[in-house]
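Good morning C.,

I know you're traveling, so I'll keep this short. The sequence:
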Amino acid sequence: MTDHFSDQMFVITVLVIAGLLTATTIAIGCTLLGIINACHKRDSINKLKHELLERGYSPEEVVTLIEATPLPTGGLDRYLARKAKRA
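The tokens, ready to paste straight into the viewer:
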């Protein structure tokens, strides 16, 4: 009887650990993809700024155009956008 119980507990423990590892892996992956996406957007904005300057826009016009763009909707994107404005 105890062998059967310990076998069931082992299976349950393995399933719980596998579930936790899966959830952790998904959470880390989503976080990393969010960071990569935010960095890509920030890089795109920087490229746009350089392109506008090369076209002859004044720095004040570039700032006006970039600030006229609506704020991103994601939390990390909003944080990076605010940080980029301060820089």
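Safe travels,
E.
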